[in-house]
């Protein structure tokens, strides 16, 4: 019975092992959407938006009347020797409606609305940064896979060369050092391929963390591209003008100025008095016995206003206003600084794109030239016109030119995404 049980376990394990791990194809757009959905910073930002909405509701409700219940019980004494003279009790309902606060409630509500908008802008900024990080991580995987493809192509060429060298060595047509060098080049390429495969797994793991994939090894990158001459279809001057209305970072800076200005007005409102209308109902007159305050026939009502005004506080309110004004000035300078920085970064990205467009043309020609050179060197080597080292140098240059071209093209894709993010 035990043997049969072991056989069943082994059979199940073999079946599980035979199930293939299907690759999960993910486009760059899908990766960005998954990252936005799974990013914890975005979830925190969404909760902060909800919190600010609660604050807006709270500040709005402060403008309306409040109903409170008041009760008191006191024991009275005649003098310092604590000779007791009697007791008094009181209970009543009170309705209080703010009539004038010097603008405190209005400013408080407007500031809470601005804080809500600020939280929404910060959430958009976090989403944008998350998308850019995901694009970069996706490109890192793409670049690692592209580099592996270049290395595998080089290995095919080196394997072919090693096969030829082996045949020639057996026929005593090449020296042992040349044969060993061909062998070494193959082994070195195999080592580079193994290392690059590890780089791919590391890059996939980083991408998997961003998009919430538990088994990132199964991620399959879908090739993508953008228009090669991107800068020819955009107008830098017009895009720079759009920054003041479309750039998220500048919008955040401007909203912080608005909040600072309203905070200054809020501090100035403390110089005005506060007036509340009140209506009280209950046992307004003190009773000597506790049970008397519950007799409805003795209940009475009263209406009036309460007036309060802070007259002297050693200049604290003036300092509060000065502090708020200084905060406002700081916010204005920071806003200018943000716009200058965004403009500089946008201009820098634009010129990097222009340079890469020219560079990509040159790198493509370099690959074609390196391919022709390598084929020529192979032919020359076959006639013993050059050494093995010359041939391997030509192959290395070809490999490097291919890597440079692939890397630059992917960098170009990222810069296009980065440029678009300035107007988002």
From TrEMBL:
One of its GO terms (cellular component) is cell outer membrane. Residues 179-206, 353-380 form a coiled coil. Its main location: membrane. One of its GO terms (molecular function) is efflux transmembrane transporter activity. The keyword Transport applies. Gene3D superfamilies: Outer membrane efflux proteins (OEP). It holds the Pfam family OEP. It comes from the Bacteria. It is found in: Cell outer membrane. Residues 1-23 form the signal peptide. InterPro entries: OMP_efflux (IPR003423), TolC-like (IPR051906). Keywords: Cell outer membrane, Coiled coil, Membrane, Signal, Transmembrane, Transmembrane beta strand, Transport. Belongs to the outer membrane factor (OMF) (TC 1.B.17) family. This is TolC family protein. It comes from Leptotrichia mesophila.
């Amino acid at each position: 019975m035990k043997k049969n049980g072991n056989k069943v376990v082994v059979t199940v394990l073999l079946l599980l092992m035979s199930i293939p791990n299907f690759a999960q194809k993910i486009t760059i757009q899908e990766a960005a959407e998954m990252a936005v959905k799974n990013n914890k910073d975005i979830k925190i930002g969404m909760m902060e938006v909800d919190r600010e909405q609660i604050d807006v509701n709270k500040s709005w409700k402060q403008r309306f009347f409040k109903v409170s219940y008041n009760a008191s019980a006191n024991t009275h004494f005649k003098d310092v020797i604590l000779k007791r003279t009697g007791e008094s009790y009181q209970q009543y309902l009170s309705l209080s409606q703010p009539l004038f606060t010097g603008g405190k409630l209005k400013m408080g509500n407007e500031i809470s609305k601005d804080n809500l908008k600020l939280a929404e802008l910060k959430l958009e900024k976090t989403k944008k940064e998350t998308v850019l990080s995901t694009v970069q991580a996706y490109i890192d995987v793409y670049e690692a896979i592209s580099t592996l493809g270049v290395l595998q192509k080089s290995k095919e060429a080196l394997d072919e060369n090693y096969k030829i060298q082996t045949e020639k060595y057996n026929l005593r047509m090449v020296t042992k050092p040349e044969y060993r060098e061909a062998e070494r080049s193959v082994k070195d390429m195999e080592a580079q391929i193994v290392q690059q495969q590890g780089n791919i797994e590391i890059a996939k793991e980083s991408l998997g963390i961003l998009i919430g994939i538990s088994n990132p090894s199964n991620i399959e990158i879908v090739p993508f591209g953008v228009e090669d001459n991107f800068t020819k279809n955009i107008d830098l001057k017009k895009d720079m003008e759009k920054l003041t209305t479309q750039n998220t970072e500048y919008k955040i800076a401007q909203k912080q100025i608005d909040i600072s200005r309203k905070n200054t007005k809020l501090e100035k409102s403390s110089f005005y008095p506060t007036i509340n209308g009140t209506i009280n109902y209950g046992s307004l007159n003190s009773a000597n016995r506790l049970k008397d305050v519950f007799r409805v026939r003795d209940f009475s009502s009263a209406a009036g206003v309460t007036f309060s005004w802070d007259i002297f506080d050693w200049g604290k309110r003036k300092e509060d206003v000065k502090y708020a004004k200084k905060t406002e000035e700081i916010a204005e300078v920071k806003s200018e600084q943000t716009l200058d920085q965004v403009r500089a970064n946008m201009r820098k990205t634009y010129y990097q794109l222009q340079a890469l467009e020219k560079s990509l043309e040159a790198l493509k020609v370099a690959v074609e030239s390196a391919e022709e050179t390598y084929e020529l060197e192979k032919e020359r080597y076959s006639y013993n016109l050059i050494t093995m080292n010359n041939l391997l140098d030509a192959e290395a240059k070809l490999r490097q030119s291919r890597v440079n071209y692939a890397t630059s093209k992917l960098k170009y894709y990222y810069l296009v995404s980065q440029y678009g993010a300035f107007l988002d």
